[in-house]
Design brief:
single chain; 236 residues; alpha+beta; 5-stranded antiparallel β-sheet; 3-stranded antiparallel β-sheet; 6 helices; 10 strands; globular
Length: 236
Protein backbone atom coordinates (compact mmCIF):
# COMPACT_ATOMS: atom_id res chain seq x y z
CA UNK A 1 0.00 0.00 0.00
CA UNK A 2 1.39 3.41 -0.97
CA UNK A 3 1.83 6.25 1.53
CA UNK A 4 -0.93 8.19 -0.25
CA UNK A 5 -3.33 5.25 0.03
CA UNK A 6 -2.52 4.92 3.74
CA UNK A 7 -3.22 8.64 4.26
CA UNK A 8 -6.52 8.43 2.38
CA UNK A 9 -7.46 5.28 4.29
CA UNK A 10 -6.80 6.97 7.63
CA UNK A 11 -8.92 9.97 6.65
CA UNK A 12 -11.73 7.63 5.64
CA UNK A 13 -11.56 5.91 9.00
CA UNK A 14 -11.79 9.31 10.73
CA UNK A 15 -14.89 10.20 8.71
CA UNK A 16 -16.54 6.87 9.54
CA UNK A 17 -15.66 6.95 13.26
CA UNK A 18 -16.68 10.57 13.70
CA UNK A 19 -19.98 9.83 11.98
CA UNK A 20 -20.66 7.12 14.55
CA UNK A 21 -19.80 9.44 17.45
CA UNK A 22 -21.88 12.31 16.10
CA UNK A 23 -24.87 10.05 15.45
CA UNK A 24 -24.64 8.70 19.00
CA UNK A 25 -24.52 12.22 20.45
CA UNK A 26 -27.46 13.33 18.35
CA UNK A 27 -29.61 10.45 19.62
CA UNK A 28 -28.42 9.98 23.21
CA UNK A 29 -26.86 13.31 24.28
CA UNK A 30 -28.52 16.12 22.28
CA UNK A 31 -27.22 18.87 24.58
CA UNK A 32 -23.64 17.79 23.90
CA UNK A 33 -24.41 17.41 20.20
CA UNK A 34 -25.66 21.00 20.11
CA UNK A 35 -22.22 22.27 21.18
CA UNK A 36 -20.47 20.89 18.07
CA UNK A 37 -19.00 23.60 15.89
CA UNK A 38 -19.15 23.72 12.07
CA UNK A 39 -16.12 22.53 10.10
CA UNK A 40 -12.93 24.55 10.37
CA UNK A 41 -12.20 26.61 7.28
CA UNK A 42 -9.25 25.91 5.03
CA UNK A 43 -7.92 29.36 6.02
CA UNK A 44 -8.03 28.45 9.73
CA UNK A 45 -6.18 25.21 9.10
CA UNK A 46 -3.62 26.97 6.91
CA UNK A 47 -3.00 29.63 9.58
CA UNK A 48 -2.65 26.97 12.28
CA UNK A 49 -0.18 25.05 10.14
CA UNK A 50 1.76 28.26 9.40
CA UNK A 51 2.08 28.94 13.12
CA UNK A 52 3.19 25.38 13.71
CA UNK A 53 5.71 25.35 10.85
CA UNK A 54 7.27 28.72 11.66
CA UNK A 55 7.54 28.26 15.44
CA UNK A 56 11.06 28.11 16.85
CA UNK A 57 12.56 24.63 16.81
CA UNK A 58 15.97 23.11 17.56
CA UNK A 59 18.52 23.13 14.74
CA UNK A 60 18.07 20.19 12.40
CA UNK A 61 14.41 19.54 13.27
CA UNK A 62 12.03 19.67 10.34
CA UNK A 63 9.02 22.02 10.45
CA UNK A 64 5.96 20.48 12.08
CA UNK A 65 2.71 19.88 10.24
CA UNK A 66 -0.74 18.65 11.18
CA UNK A 67 -1.34 14.95 10.48
CA UNK A 68 -3.78 14.41 7.57
CA UNK A 69 -6.23 12.58 9.85
CA UNK A 70 -6.48 15.68 12.05
CA UNK A 71 -7.37 17.82 9.05
CA UNK A 72 -9.98 15.25 8.08
CA UNK A 73 -11.61 15.65 11.50
CA UNK A 74 -11.53 19.45 11.34
CA UNK A 75 -13.20 19.34 7.93
CA UNK A 76 -16.13 17.70 9.72
CA UNK A 77 -16.10 19.68 12.99
CA UNK A 78 -13.73 22.37 14.29
CA UNK A 79 -14.33 21.58 17.98
CA UNK A 80 -17.17 22.41 20.40
CA UNK A 81 -18.36 25.67 21.91
CA UNK A 82 -18.29 26.27 25.64
CA UNK A 83 -21.68 25.65 27.24
CA UNK A 84 -21.75 26.68 30.90
CA UNK A 85 -25.52 26.91 31.39
CA UNK A 86 -26.91 23.38 31.31
CA UNK A 87 -30.52 23.53 32.48
CA UNK A 88 -30.93 21.62 35.76
CA UNK A 89 -27.24 21.79 36.66
CA UNK A 90 -27.49 24.17 39.62
CA UNK A 91 -23.93 23.58 40.85
CA UNK A 92 -22.22 23.93 37.47
CA UNK A 93 -20.95 20.34 37.44
CA UNK A 94 -21.67 19.51 33.81
CA UNK A 95 -19.82 20.75 30.73
CA UNK A 96 -21.80 19.67 27.69
CA UNK A 97 -18.91 20.25 25.30
CA UNK A 98 -16.49 17.92 27.12
CA UNK A 99 -17.92 14.77 25.53
CA UNK A 100 -14.73 12.78 24.89
CA UNK A 101 -13.41 10.23 27.45
CA UNK A 102 -12.18 11.81 30.64
CA UNK A 103 -14.36 14.86 30.02
CA UNK A 104 -12.31 16.33 27.16
CA UNK A 105 -12.67 17.99 23.76
CA UNK A 106 -10.35 18.34 20.77
CA UNK A 107 -8.81 21.73 20.04
CA UNK A 108 -9.37 23.77 16.85
CA UNK A 109 -6.42 24.40 14.48
CA UNK A 110 -5.03 27.72 15.69
CA UNK A 111 -5.44 26.89 19.39
CA UNK A 112 -3.69 23.57 18.86
CA UNK A 113 -0.77 25.18 17.03
CA UNK A 114 -0.26 27.67 19.84
CA UNK A 115 -0.20 25.01 22.59
CA UNK A 116 2.96 23.10 21.69
CA UNK A 117 4.50 20.94 24.41
CA UNK A 118 8.11 21.06 25.56
CA UNK A 119 10.78 18.56 26.52
CA UNK A 120 13.62 18.93 28.99
CA UNK A 121 17.07 19.53 27.50
CA UNK A 122 20.50 19.70 29.10
CA UNK A 123 23.47 21.82 28.06
CA UNK A 124 26.38 21.38 30.47
CA UNK A 125 25.04 22.29 33.90
CA UNK A 126 21.98 24.02 32.49
CA UNK A 127 18.57 22.38 32.19
CA UNK A 128 15.92 24.07 30.10
CA UNK A 129 12.72 23.37 28.17
CA UNK A 130 12.70 23.23 24.40
CA UNK A 131 9.73 22.75 22.05
CA UNK A 132 8.92 19.19 21.04
CA UNK A 133 7.01 17.63 18.15
CA UNK A 134 4.08 16.83 20.46
CA UNK A 135 1.05 19.11 20.25
CA UNK A 136 -1.92 19.04 22.68
CA UNK A 137 -4.91 17.63 20.84
CA UNK A 138 -7.64 16.38 23.22
CA UNK A 139 -7.84 18.37 26.48
CA UNK A 140 -10.09 18.95 29.48
CA UNK A 141 -9.36 22.65 29.96
CA UNK A 142 -9.02 24.28 26.51
CA UNK A 143 -8.21 27.68 28.02
CA UNK A 144 -5.25 26.43 30.06
CA UNK A 145 -4.31 23.13 28.32
CA UNK A 146 -3.09 21.36 31.47
CA UNK A 147 -3.58 17.71 30.56
CA UNK A 148 -5.01 15.34 28.00
CA UNK A 149 -3.75 13.65 24.85
CA UNK A 150 -1.05 14.95 22.52
CA UNK A 151 -0.70 14.19 18.84
CA UNK A 152 2.73 13.94 17.21
CA UNK A 153 3.15 16.50 14.43
CA UNK A 154 6.56 15.44 13.11
CA UNK A 155 7.19 13.94 9.70
CA UNK A 156 7.83 10.23 9.25
CA UNK A 157 6.25 7.06 10.65
CA UNK A 158 5.60 8.52 14.13
CA UNK A 159 3.42 11.31 12.78
CA UNK A 160 -0.08 11.15 14.23
CA UNK A 161 0.52 8.86 17.22
CA UNK A 162 -1.24 9.95 20.41
CA UNK A 163 -0.43 9.69 24.11
CA UNK A 164 -1.07 11.27 27.49
CA UNK A 165 0.53 14.47 28.72
CA UNK A 166 0.29 16.77 31.74
CA UNK A 167 1.68 20.26 32.29
CA UNK A 168 2.17 21.25 35.90
CA UNK A 169 5.70 21.80 37.23
CA UNK A 170 7.06 20.48 33.94
CA UNK A 171 5.85 18.70 30.83
CA UNK A 172 5.13 15.03 31.54
CA UNK A 173 4.78 13.24 28.21
CA UNK A 174 3.96 9.51 28.21
CA UNK A 175 4.67 7.00 25.50
CA UNK A 176 2.00 6.79 22.78
CA UNK A 177 -1.19 4.93 23.70
CA UNK A 178 -2.99 5.22 20.34
CA UNK A 179 -1.32 4.65 16.96
CA UNK A 180 -3.46 7.27 15.23
CA UNK A 181 -6.37 9.67 15.60
CA UNK A 182 -8.58 7.28 13.65
CA UNK A 183 -7.86 4.45 16.11
CA UNK A 184 -8.66 6.78 19.04
CA UNK A 185 -11.98 7.88 17.52
CA UNK A 186 -12.86 4.26 16.70
CA UNK A 187 -12.21 3.38 20.34
CA UNK A 188 -14.48 6.22 21.49
CA UNK A 189 -17.24 5.06 19.14
CA UNK A 190 -16.89 1.47 20.37
CA UNK A 191 -17.14 2.31 24.07
CA UNK A 192 -20.21 4.46 23.40
CA UNK A 193 -21.96 1.87 21.26
CA UNK A 194 -21.31 -1.31 23.23
CA UNK A 195 -19.01 -0.50 26.15
CA UNK A 196 -16.08 -2.49 24.77
CA UNK A 197 -12.93 -1.84 22.78
CA UNK A 198 -9.61 -0.39 23.98
CA UNK A 199 -11.35 2.14 26.27
CA UNK A 200 -13.82 -0.32 27.74
CA UNK A 201 -11.59 -1.35 30.65
CA UNK A 202 -11.19 2.13 32.10
CA UNK A 203 -13.17 1.80 35.34
CA UNK A 204 -12.68 5.45 36.27
CA UNK A 205 -14.25 6.89 33.12
CA UNK A 206 -17.45 5.16 32.04
CA UNK A 207 -19.83 6.92 29.62
CA UNK A 208 -22.99 8.22 31.24
CA UNK A 209 -25.80 10.60 30.31
CA UNK A 210 -26.94 13.50 32.47
CA UNK A 211 -29.32 16.31 31.50
CA UNK A 212 -28.89 15.53 27.83
CA UNK A 213 -25.08 15.58 28.07
CA UNK A 214 -22.51 12.84 27.63
CA UNK A 215 -20.31 12.73 30.73
CA UNK A 216 -17.64 10.34 31.98
CA UNK A 217 -17.92 9.03 35.54
CA UNK A 218 -16.54 6.53 37.99
CA UNK A 219 -19.57 4.29 38.68
CA UNK A 220 -18.77 4.09 42.40
CA UNK A 221 -18.38 7.85 42.84
CA UNK A 222 -21.00 9.99 44.57
CA UNK A 223 -19.35 13.33 43.77
CA UNK A 224 -22.02 14.57 41.35
CA UNK A 225 -25.25 16.09 42.64
CA UNK A 226 -26.97 15.88 39.26
CA UNK A 227 -28.75 12.66 38.27
CA UNK A 228 -26.89 10.50 35.78
CA UNK A 229 -27.30 7.10 34.16
CA UNK A 230 -24.59 4.80 32.88
CA UNK A 231 -24.78 4.12 29.15
CA UNK A 232 -23.85 0.48 29.75
CA UNK A 233 -24.92 -0.47 33.32
CA UNK A 234 -23.69 -4.03 32.80
CA UNK A 235 -20.11 -2.72 32.59
CA UNK A 236 -20.20 -1.08 35.96
Amino acid sequence: MSDQMEIEGGAGRVVEAWGRIEAWLRERAPRSHATLLPPATEAEMAEGERLLATAWRPAGQEPLSFPPELKALWRLCASARNDEDVEGDEEGEIWAELFLPGGRVFLPPIDMAQARLGVEAVAGDTRYWTPSHNVPCVVRYPETVESGLYIRACTGPEQGVMGRFAVYEGHDIDEPTHPSLSSYLEAVAAVLEHGGGPLGDDKFYRPAVSLGCLIWVCPDSDELDVPWELVHPQHR
